[in-house]
Amino acid sequence: MADEDQAAPGLLASTLLGAAEAHAKTRPSSASSGLNIVDDVALNGGFRYGEITSIAGGSGSGKTLFAFHAIASHLLSSEKGEVAFVDTIGSFSPLRLRNVLASRLEIQSRHSEYRQAGYIYRSRQSSSAASEGNLKEQATRLLDRVKVMRVFDFAGLVDALGEIGQMWEKQDQNLRNIVETHLENGKKVVYDSDEDSLSVGSVDIAVHDEELTKGVPYKHDGQVGMFIVDTITNVVSSMVSRSQVRGQSLLASFMRSLRHLTYRRHICSVLTNTAVGLNHTSNPNYPRKVQENASIFAATVGKPALGKAFTYLVDTSIFLSVIPKTRLDAEMAYGEGDAAGWNKVGVLEVLKDRCGSREGWWAAFEITTEVLLINPL
């Protein structure tokens, strides 16, 4: 009889490497942030699937807007992929998300109407140019693939994640039943997502590893491929305030479950988080230390809420801040000028990247409307 306390047998590093490479080959392309300069300079492509990304920042810094653009990227790149949006503060705006989707559809349509000839873009006459009304209709149809889940406490957040996991497990069971039925009837099982309900990314079936080695991109047909929590701060803070030790333990357990589901199903998980310490202290007895700030810029104060422990529970930690756009704006903001009239520019910084080398990368952006992100330069 085997000893229950006996350690698990060791695995060869080459075996782990093979599994990691196979997993990376099937990872979908990153979800765009909605702005090319941010994707290229700071995120190296966008928000990664199979990883948990935390976006922290103060009010109005653009957290929810970046999350909405990630949703738009997922819906536009996957014909059947779905999104689960967990709203913890009741601030979800379907109208704003519809407008973000319409703006992305307009950009997509505009790009299709131009062709590049050398360094000159010449307009191509197209009778199929989408009107504003048509764009909103298309965007409204895309909302049918966004599942909004309103939760009020941490238990509700756990239930929401459990519901997503059960949806995936139900699909797995259906796939197993189909496979068993085909095998019992002596039929050859063909895994073609265009012909039947079996997808290349299905798990716990005999050919899963074989399919992975082919490097076929993972598909989220009819299943949740993006998980958004806006925001995680409220439900976690209220729980931790009652019991620090128990709260941190429950948070760590939840994050382990989220990481398992995210990695196994190639889900892009985005958690928005607030920031603390955004205001300079005026008390000379308690001067704020520079090392308390998370930003690489000395003039940028603040850090993500929920403490350092939370940073180690995510794969990528992003911090959004707002700074003066020009020197004149800085003099107005920090000097004796009109503190309310200076122009602002947003900065996206990668504070931590567990699975890559983006730590310390940053890019500037500007929010022109409630839906548009532009290059401030």
Structural overview:
With 377 residues, this protein is α/β, with parallel strands linked by helices. It is built from eleven helices and 13 strands. A hairpin with an 8-residue loop joins strand 11 (344-353) and strand 12 (362-367). The protein starts with 12 loop residues before the first helix and ends with a strand. The model is unreliable at 115-130, 189-215 and 282-286 (pLDDT under 50).
Order of helices and strands: HHEHEHEEHEHHEHHEEEHEHEEE
Strand content: 15-25%
Largest sheet: 9 strands, mixed
| Tally of separate helices | 11
Question: Given the helix and strand composition, which structural class is it?
Answer: alpha/beta
Total number of beta strands: 13
Which strands sit side by side, in order, in the main sheet? 5-2-6-7-1-10-11-12-13
Enumerate the spans where pLDDT stays under 50 for 5 or more consecutive residues: 115-130, 189-215, 282-286
Distance between the termini: 69 Å
Silhouette = globular
Could you report the average pLDDT, rounded to the nearest whole number?
Answer: 81
Using the CA coordinates, give the radius of gyration.
Answer: 23 Å
Considering DSSP H and I runs of 4 or more, what fraction of the residues is helical?
Answer: 25-40%
Descriptive labels:
single chain, about 375 residues, alpha/beta, 9-stranded mixed beta sheet, two-stranded antiparallel sheet, about 40% helix
